[in-house]
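Example noted here:
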Amino acid sequence: MTIINLQTPQVVELAPPSVSLAGWIRINLFNGVLSSITTIAGLLFFTWIIYAVGSWAFVNSVWTSPTAEGCQGITGACWSVIYARSRIILFGLYPYEEHWRSATACGVVVLVVFLSCIPALWTLLRLSLVWGIGAIVFYGLMHGGLLGLSVVPTDRWGGLSLTVYIFVSVCLIGMPGSIVLALARQSRLPVVRKMSTILIYWIRALPLLAILFSAALIIPFALPEWLQGDKLTRVIAAFALFFACYQAENIRAGMQIIPAGQDEAAKSLGLNYWQRTSRIILPQAFRNSLPAMINQFVMTFKDTSVITIVGFFDVLASAQAAFGTAEWAPYYIEVYVFVGFIYFVFIFSLSRYGAYLEKRMRVGHE
């Protein structure tokens, strides 16, 4: 409600009157015959959905049968396929007796991500130490060759640990690259600015699958053998370039919001280009583009499932192998639900942490 004071040219905004829960329900859900019928029909429909899903997933389901025979004749879910084939889903082609290494490596990544969320560690040196040590420990556990661990080549990696490894590697390599590309697009040197613009537009115009397919199968024909590396390294490098080009545009958008007067004021104080960029421009650019950056991280984790096309046994491919036998073939829905839950946990955690950062930095709440 708005009241205009006629004596003084001042507009006074009054808070809307408070409405109780019962009043809100009556106004929004039962305001008339048609509204009441729609509300009741919707409640009945969602009640039926909850009952049907609950009966299938929990009431009539089988959880711990070691064979598919225990699921014959049931009307619910056969979660026994997860119980019996969980190692294949989580570890893929990794040697069975070395599964503890893959599980420990995933735990190391989760620990590193958790430590990175602590504000006390938000300095370049501390984060570099945490991620550097974590990367060395992860690769040492997965690859082996040290402390008596047997060597497991990258083509034997699979399951959840491979998905996490690719996601973390792409983000670690792609974020510095995105900063470089964003600064290059803002450069006053025409050659640097145009070359970075062409690269970003060219990569963004191509589908991710085409880029990964080229890195895995075509690039080896154009490079000498000593420069090719293994297929996983090439795929991660191509994926990181794709990530960097998209993230660079998010960062550049955050930089364009910053008033030009701040850079001019920094120049008047005698700060050089790198001091202005590291202390004034980039911190504000990250803050301004934080929602878009978090969204790009979420999309990158979902896009890791594409690597199945180029021959890697990620968690999705491992899930398909779990019900690939005649015994467990009828229970593919349960496997896909389990894999979907894994993706949901990671993506929901990323989105909630992004919301926490937005609230902490008060993005959009000035």
Q: What stands out?
A: The longest strand covers residues 2-5. DSSP finds 15 helices and three strands in the chain. The chain has a mean pLDDT of 88. Residues 68 and 146 are 40 Å apart (CA to CA).
